[in-house]
Every structure is written in C-alpha cells, then in structure tokens.
Amino acid sequence: MRSIALTCVLCAMPACSPGTPDPVQADAPFDAERPTDSDGRPNAEDNCPGIDNPDQRDHDGDGRGDVCDGCPHIAELAPDEDADGDGIGDACDPHPDDDRDVLVHFDGFYDDRDGLPEDWQAGTGAAALWQVRDGQLRNTTPDVVLLASWTKAKTRDQVVDTRATVLKVSDPSINPERTVGVVAGHDGLGPGPLWMCSLLDRANDTTLAILSLVDLDTTGKLGSGALSYEFRFAIEAGMTSSFRIELRGQSSPSKVVQTCTLGFESAGASTVNAEDDGTVDGYPGLRTSGVEAAFDYIVVYGRKP
User: Is residue 278 part of a domain?
Assistant: First the structure.
C-alpha cells in the first residue's frame, strides 16, 4: 500500500459564498457559563462560541467547529496563524499573502444517505451509484465512469481540496482505465471539456496524471487531451491521496494558469502549470473510472472582488 498526498485547487468568482459563516469571530466578553450564541451550549462546551452550530461538527478533531475553523479539514498546529487576516488559516490558505480568499464551501459528508449530497449532480453515471457513509462520499462500483459535481456556485477563480482512498479497482478486462481525482471547469451536467487533477492508471501503461485538459465523450470516457506530467505508478486498493487544483481566471492577479500540485509524503512536491485555453469557468467535481473510492471531504475556496 502506498500513501500519497495530492492537492487540487480552483479560485472562484467574486460572489462565491453569500451566507458563508465568517470564521473570524468578533472580540467580545467571554463568559464560560453562558452561551454567546443561540445553540444552547455554554461557551466552555461550545467549539464555536459566537456562531450557532448545535451539531458541533469538527471534522479534523482540533476542537474548533467546522463553521469557525479557518482550515476545517486540517488540524493546524498553530490554528490562530493567519498572516493576511482573511479568516483562512495559514496551513490551508490558497494565497497566504492575499486577503481576498474566502471559504466558499466545506462538506465533511456527515449525513448518511443514498445518492449524492445536496447541491451535487451526476455529470456522468447515475447519482444512485453514490452514497454517503461514515463521513465519506463513496461511489459504489469500480466498473463504470462516474463524475459528480458540486453545482451550487459556478466559479472561475477557485481552489478545491479533497482527499480520497482507493477501496477497489476494476478488472482491466471490464475497464482498463483506472482514474480517481478532482475536476474543474466543468458544466456539471454531462460530457464536455474539463480540467482534471488525478491518478491515472491504464493497463500496461501505468501513469500518474497530475494535470490534464480533457474532453469527456457521451459515455464519460476521456477523449482528447495531453498529460502535463507523467510518473510511473500503479493504482492499488488502500492507496490514499489528497488533491488540490487551481484555475485562475480574469479576477486573479496571475491569470490564465492552471495548477495541480502533487506531493508525495516521502518525496516532496511537484507543481505543473499549463497555459489557459479559455476553459476556466465551471464547477468542481470528483471523477472515478475503474476505481471505487471514498472521499473524506471537499473544501472550495474563492476570492473576494
């Protein structure tokens, strides 16, 4: 079994998250016995005093509730470090020297259900082939191509993080293409161009694809597109990777760049940049082909105007 850390990022349109709670709480007198918010918990027992969160969800287990945690998916060693003051912790800030980043969406996949979570759509394959179980979003078969997109906010400058574990791989005679990863710039509703940051393993030609621009045909198979980086590797059950992909469009200071960062826990990290072809608007998503996988969370960052 091989453990990998891979990260995939996109940067979003200006009004990316109306109503997203601000993780930076205003200074206020602190009374440990009386609740500051209305969730009914005394401040001493509330992991987000000042912000209603009756479920007290804390995905990374660092004692800070998801709704007030600048990095809800990372237990920061220094949780109060936020150099640019944008409310996103330095440990996960897409641009730690730019205070325009905002947390658009976080989902820890808490509520067990059949099908996709709320505000998700199946771009390829049936929504019924996904399920939420035990804090993970999983596809239920390795034998077909599946693409699921979070479609609440179509964005341009966007950064997306997720982490996945490979549960099972298909028989090559059924599906010779084994892929798991994150997509960006997709319309969310079917075939078409998208950016993909992924592990890609083809029978007899194992390759790790960090960043590629591809067209999906009507069956969801990969069409035209060139790999931007290759590394010989085989996808195996039990493999865990984290992904981060970034698309920078007109509202980003450094535009027309796509970035997909691959970091091996034992061998550092590599970054690949590619010229923009205009395909930067779209939705974030998750794609599998020939792989059954479990995704632990999704984090979507955007940018203020």
Answer: yes
Q: Which contacts (CB < 8 Å, 24+ apart) does range 266-272 have?
A: 270/210, 270/229, 272/210, 272/211, 272/228, 272/229
Note whether 299 and 162 are within 8 A (CB): yes
Gap between the Cα atoms of 85 and 96, Å rounded: 9
Q: Which amino acid is at 126?
A: A
List CB contacts of 162: < 8 A, sequence separation 6 or more: 8, 182, 242, 243, 286, 295, 296, 297, 298, 299
The whole-number pLDDT of residue 118 equals 93
DSSP per-residue letters across 23-43: SSPPP----TTS-SSSSS--G
Domain assignment of residue 278, given as a range: 5-14+107-303
The predicted pLDDT at position 233 comes to 62
Q: Quote the distance between the C-alpha of residue 177 and its chain's center.
A: 22
- Residue pair 76/62 in contact (Cβ under 8 Å)? The answer is yes
Q: How far apart are CA 79 and CA 239, in angstroms?
A: 28
Domain count of the fold of the chain: 1
Q: Does 43 reside within a domain?
A: no
Q: Which residues of the chain have pLDDT under 70?
A: 1-40, 191, 202-233, 249-257, 262-280
Distance, CA of 201 to CA of 39 (rounded, Å):
48
- Distance, in Å, from the CA atom of 49 to the CA atom of 207, rounded to the nearest integer, reads 47
| In a domain? residue 84 | no
Residue 119 lies in a domain: yes
∠94-100-102 over CA atoms, to 5°?
Answer: 65
pLDDT 10s digits, 84-142: 999 999 999 988 998 989 999 999 999 999 999 999 999 888 999 999 999 999 999 99
The conformation of residue 21, written as its DSSP 8-state character, comes to P
pLDDT value for 2: 43
One-letter amino acid of 180: V
